[in-house]
Write a structure and sequence with these properties.
Layout (H helix, E strand, L loop, with lengths): L3 E12 L6 H16 L6 E5 L3 H5 L4 H8 L6 E5 L5 H14 L6 E7 L6 H9 L14 H16 L7 H11 L13 H5 L3 E3 L2 E2 L8 E10 L7 E10 L14 H14 L8 E3 L5 H10 L8 H7 L15 H5 L6 H14 L12 E8 L4 E8 L2
Parallel strand pairs: 2-3, 2-4, 9-10
Antiparallel strand pairs: 1-7, 1-8, 4-7, 5-6, 8-11, 10-11
């Protein structure tokens, strides 16, 4: 297997894009990545999306995107793994290039969530859970995460306000990212007064949905000696339903995929300079830090309290806003994480730039932890 490099990146600002269709979002992001890489033709396209068939009445995204990108004839497919769709699509793109089967691969994540009503969109997102044993009970996705957070608080003695550093950090970093949905920092007081969405999760513990698209252009590293390298890539799974897990407070798929990625990269967690984790909810940020070896069990929240996660901390996270500040267009989120990691390594992150980033890790979570993709990128 040959080493893979990321030659181009493209992002569309996360917004409520009333004037842009799902088609246009995906195509614009793909064009931006092609232009960044100075590549005109690719051998394959992998499109990630979760809800297009239900919310946008459009399936068959691979052929549609290839057509409107001027890439007719190339192999193109859509991949879906709930909120982990983009990380999973990235994995397939990497394998296609690493195997030598393809020399230039475009991975595009796109999601259009704001054209439909709240009930319809929420119902579509809930399909990431177990239809027969979770959704049938009437639980929403935020409700499932609220159950996990409540149990975590009970086991380790935390209060809701102890999770505030995750939200404050994300919003502070998002204010420096022109592609972020929220561009204003928040204070502890604002966090404390946040409206409860599903007790104990407040408005500031939950990421916002939005419309967006991001893309990466992958090539063999031998063809791009100065491009950011992919040195670790793994996807692992866990039970779909939370109640089937041995431990609902441990992201087993995060542990497994991170372990594989670390082994591929030949490093441990101590070598990671920044971590773009999947902070769809504050509790997921804490669990990811623990399951990936950055904190002991029950200690993830303390990393936030100590300032370890800040831009000048031991392990900066959500460096360009994360899901909480940038927004969470679910099928595109994992590619936004990867694009941001590439920009940090290149030194092209603008106001959000973290000094001395050589190795970055991203982690994209599908459902409540059923599919988790971990990638490690490195400066050439």
């Amino acid at each position: 297997m040959q080493e893979v490099a990321i030659l181009g990146v493209g992002q569309i600002p996360v917004r409520e894009h009333w004037d842009l269709s799902l088609r246009q979002l995906a195509v614009d992001a793909g064009r931006a990545a092609l232009a960044d890489a100075d590549v005109a033709k690719v051998d394959g396209i992998f499109v990630s999306n979760m809800t297009s068939g239900r919310l946008n009445k459009q399936r068959h995204l691979g052929a549609m995107v290839a057509d409107y990108l001027g890439q007719r004839g190339v192999e193109a497919v859509k991949l879906e793994a709930a909120c982990g769709s983009a990380g999973s699509a990235m994995r397939q793109g990497i394998l296609a290039v690493a195997s030598g089967e393809m020399e230039a691969v475009l991975v595009i994540g796109a999601e259009k969530l704001t054209d439909t009503g709240f009930t319809e969109t929420t119902s579509a997102l809930a399909t990431a859970a177990d239809a027969d044993y979770e959704i049938i009970q009437g639980v929403t996705f935020v409700g499932l995460n609220a159950l996990i957070m409540r149990r975590y608080m009970h086991e380790y003695g935390y209060q809701r306000e102890d999770f505030a550093p995750f939200a404050l950090n994300a919003h502070a970093n998002g204010a420096k990212n022109p592609n972020a949905m929220f561009r204003d920092p928040i204070s502890q007081k604002i966090y404390d007064n946040g409206r409860i969405v599903a007790d104990p999760i407040s408005l500031f513990d939950a990421s916002p949905i939005g419309d967006g698209a991001a893309a990466l252009l992958l090539v063999p590293a031998s063809k791009a000696p100065n491009a950011v390298r992919v040195v670790g890539s793994a996807v692992s799974t866990d039970t779909l339903a939370i109640h089937d897990r041995e431990d609902p407070l441990w992201l087993k798929a995060a542990e497994l995929s991170a372990k594989q990625a670390y082994e591929q990269a030949g490093i441990g967690p101590e070598a990671i300079d920044i971590f773009e984790l999947h902070d769809a909810f504050s509790i997921m940020a804490a669990l990811s830090l623990e399951s990936c070896g950055f904190a002991e069990r029950g200690e993830g929240v303390k990393m936030g309290q100590r300032g370890d996660i800040l831009a000048n901390g031991r392990l900066p996270i959500s460096t360009m806003g994360g899901l909480k500040g940038r927004g969470h267009p679910v099928g595109a989120t994992g590619l936004y994480q990867l694009a941001e990691a590439v920009l940090q390594i290149r030194g092209d992150a603008g106001e959000a730039q973290i000094d001395g980033v050589n190795i970055a890790m991203t982690q994209n979570i599908g459902g409540s932890g059923a599919t988790i993709a971990t990638h490690i990128l490195k400066r050439p």
